[in-house]
Amino acid sequence: MTSAFADPPITPKAAATRARLLEVAAAVFIEHGYAAVSLRDIAKAAEVTKGAIYGHFRSKGQLLVEVIRTQLAERDARFDMTAVAEQPMTAFVQFINPDSRDLRLLQIDAAAAARHDPDVAAGVQEIFAARSAWILDSLRHLDNPEVLLYVINALSSGVGVQEAHGRPAPDPNVWSQVVARAFGLRAAP
Question: What pLDDT score was predicted for residue 1?
């Protein structure tokens, strides 16, 4: 089975161009929304040709998926799933972390685009499968980790939808207290 992801660049120059395209595309997608952006818009903002984009990504959909995959990898590198398994409220507080707002908005755009764009659908499915395996591995000691995974995904998506509608997240301390009571957990420190 072939991957929905773009092939990694093979030269340092290509890697730099790809990184620049991902950075610019993320900013343009976040500012205008995936559906309103063309590859021409991204090329103009990145000061490259559309051909340069096609040298790295086969479509706008694949570019969106790579933006999300890259940003998730960067965020997840700072996230300790073992600590989350021991202190679940740490994860619940992360759902409203302002540092992840842009990523959540990109994921909402991808969810909508996946309904009609096979590149986005395949990429999102591949990302979801890998993330689910990672999360389930960290939660394997709990009863019904699949249910907790579902709750995690539902909360994360729900927060993204709220933000897409312009509704600000609650104060993290209030959020922590309310969620802890609702789930019978200790509030995050």
Answer: 46
